[in-house]
Write a structure and sequence with these properties.
- The protein has helices spanning about 40-45, 70-85, 95-105, 125-135, 135-150, 155-165, 170-180, 210-220, 235, 240-255, and strands at about 5, 10-15, 20-25, 50-55, 85-95, 115, 195-200, 220-225.
- By secondary structure, it is of the alpha/beta class.
- Helix 2 crosses helix 3 (about 95-105) and helix 5 packs across helix 6 (about 155-165).
- The longest helix has 15 residues, at about 70-85.
- The protein is globular, with a radius of gyration of 17 Å.
- The protein starts with a strand and ends with a helix.
- The structure holds coenzyme A (COA).
């Protein structure tokens, strides 16, 4: 299982592929980890390498004393440099979307395309989310699928999500949500000059289709895919549709 070093700490990532030609790197959302991309790591076609990272303090990566968006961006940069990738597509869900937008604004020349999944250019968090998290972590985990999933998403999927989320400490969830709450790049969309695929579940209550439409209206070269019967964890809820959208996007916009 691969790890890379970041300032004496170990960062875990999963890789499925052979080579450095063209890679897509997936960044999870608040309290998540790389396992939430299992259907993309295993089933996505049309690209030589698929990579997913556990951000600092998440799942198998080492614990850090302080978490920040700058840290997440810096860790991603070290990974990209270590793997010596030729062409990089960044895909991020929710908080991961904030990470990849920030990465692009800092290192525009190192990214070929963005896949913005269930995310936004501004990610204010409901005050009640912080309150429930503070009051009772087990309750928070138990009820998290209500906001995060389409109402008919199977128990198998929501249970898998809870099991993975339970690997994250309460404080890490808190820090991730605080990072989201402060994130706002709504006035920087005109700076995005690479192709962007925007994916959003039609029943996403946490980052609603309005956020996706905003991206699509403001970004010069973008494509919007709204997915039926899916909520905020769309990559687990509708993996076939998400993978198809990414494959079509890669074929259309990127060199092989
Ligand atoms: N893209 C486009 N529009 C956005 C946006 C985005 N990323 N983020 C906010 N806006 C819009 C809102 O729709 C709102 O528009 P309106 O005035 O026409 O209704 C306006 O900008 C201000 O919204 P916001 O900054 O969110 O402040 P608020 O006080 O209206 O609402 C919350 C605060 C927390 C209630 C609200 O952001 C919310 O419901 N968030 C989703 C729930 C959540 O916790 N998500 C987790 C994200 S990680």
């Amino acid at each position: 299982m691969p790890f890379f070093n970041y300032k004496e700490k170990k960062i875990y990532y999963q890789i499925n592929g052979n080579g450095t030609e063209k890679a897509i790197i997936f960044i999870h959302g608040s309290g998540g980890n790389s396992n939430l991309w299992k259907y993309q790591l295993n089933d996505l076609d049309g690209i030589s390498s698929k990579i997913a990272v556990d951000l600092p303090s998440h799942a198998q990566s080492d614990k850090f004393s302080e978490l920040s968006l700058d840290l997440y961006v810096d860790v991603l940069n070290v990974l990209i440099d270590r793997l010596k990738l030729n062409e990089v597509i960044l895909a991020g869900q929710s908080l991961g979307g904030a990470v990849i937008q920030s990465y692009y604004f800092k290192y525009p020349e190192k990214v070929s395309a963005l896949v913005l999944i269930a995310t936004g250019a501004r990610l204010r968090v409901l005050p009640s989310t912080f309150e429930i998290l503070k009051k009772d972590f087990q309750e928070f985990l138990k009820f998290s699928p209500i906001g995060a999933f389409y109402k008919e998403t199977s128990k198998e999927i929501t249970d898998f999500y809870i099991k993975e989320a339970a690997k994250t400490e309460r404080e890490v969830f808190h820090d991730d949500y605080s990072i989201c709450d402060r994130f706002d790049v709504m006035d920087k969309m005109n700076l995005i000059k690479i192709p962007c695929l925007i994916i959003c579940g039609k029943d996403d209550k946490l980052t609603p289709p309005k956020y996706a439409t905003f991206f699509n209206d403001k970004i010069e070269e973008s494509e919007l895919i709204l997915i039926d019967k899916a909520g905020h964890i769309v990559m687990l809820e509708k993996p076939d549709e998400v993978n198809q959208a990414i494959e079509d996007f890669i074929e259309k916009y990127l060199t092989v």
